[in-house]
Amino acid sequence: MRTAGQKSGRLHARIALAGALALLLAGCAAAPSAVHRVSLPKVAPAPVQTQAASSRERARILGSYGGIYQDARLQSLIEKTIDRLTAASERPDLKYNVTILNSPAVNAFALPDGELFVTRGLIALANDESELASVLSHEMGHVIAHHAEIREDKARQAALISHVVSDVLSDPQTGALALAKSKLALASFSRAQEFEADGIGVGISARAGFDPYGAARFLTDMQRNADLKHGSGDEQRSFDFLAAHPATPDRVRNARQNARQFTAPGGGKRGRDEYLSDLDGMVYGEDPSEGLVRGRRFLHSKLGFTFVAPPGFTLDNTAQAVLGLSDGGGEALRLDVVKVPAEQSLADYLKSGWIENVDPNSVKEFTVNGFSAAAASAKGNEWSFRLYAVRFGSDVYRFIFAARKMNESVDRAFRASIESFRRMSLAESQQVKPLHIKIVTVGPGDTIDTLASRMAVSDRKRDRFLVLNGLAARDTIKAGEKVKIAVE
Predict the structure, then answer these.
(1) Which of 47, 364, 30, 321 is nearest to 179 (CA)?
(2) What topology does CATH give the domain 434-487?
């Protein structure tokens, strides 16, 4: 979450829309019954208008995904991998530039001019060089097959979709849907294009000497990560903005079929130990400068405030807002920051029309831990809302709580969350530190449970350890193996 000044012009850049799978390689329900064959078009130089579109998309991606993550060791690893893949590709004459994004999200992007982006969250999720190569070669496939030029159209589509931000603030019904969803994936291609890029990518990886089954493993890990973060209920799947894209299980199956055309399982370089060594010490999870989620608590040492979400909520810190969703999906919250003239009362602001259907008789002013605040109620057809505005320094923080079934207990939990909003102490600010990846060697007495207990996360330690290390629930670990844990 950024300050109001940082967010001006960015508030509309990324809105909570794609619920369960805001991932690069996420997708839809049906798959081809046979291995996907590809035929490559001739690639002409990018026209001036495409270059301009790429420039706009680069700015949009950097603004939405935390800017650039500086890590010379990781950058060198990626560039060496790209050089190896390029030499083995159908277009060795093309040039690629890769930027690591400072975001815990698992995502990657390709622009028409060959500029590629990967998040540090994606790098952390991968477990060997072949898995990273599968992502990079997939993105190269979009460029080689000319898919990336679709971004110019997608940029216009994203601009239209971003108006949902306004709807969140003016239409309670649409707002509730947006609150219950996660990040918008700026890169989304058609079902056929995703399968084509998969086929191209597996071929490039195999010819470069990497294990071509890395794609299937990483797609599986992405699905597990998505399930861990968002759950897999039918309601959340219905919110999937990428529902028109190939579903991950289908793509895993297709990726394996493609890999079998080159080698049997176990062929090619995986490079696990070398890869994990380069990951040691990298930032894991949120960047403290953007705020940190610790269980139900959100802490922003730079802005100097903290609050606690209602019981049962899971928080997601995005560039434009802090989003929260209850376990059952029946309640949600959104926190963002805006500029409100000092002479305008918060009560007047809540009644100023930034959200519709506000009950004027419900507007009340009060204080929260010494800060001026105001509350109001609004109601849609299926959702009820509690709105709060808190003046903190020169900014106003807006809380939108939504519930499908509002009752006294839910209302009380919302109010308790607001009352937890306070200034952080200097000691608290100094204690807010990012998590890092630590690579450890499994000892003779170590088990998944003992290593998972060392994870510096607030909940589901075992599940998070398994996902981070690409392990299934019934997998075991052996002494001498290297694994990732998240530590302070």
Answers:
(1) 321
(2) Membrane-bound Lytic Murein Transglycosylase D; Chain A (3.10.350)
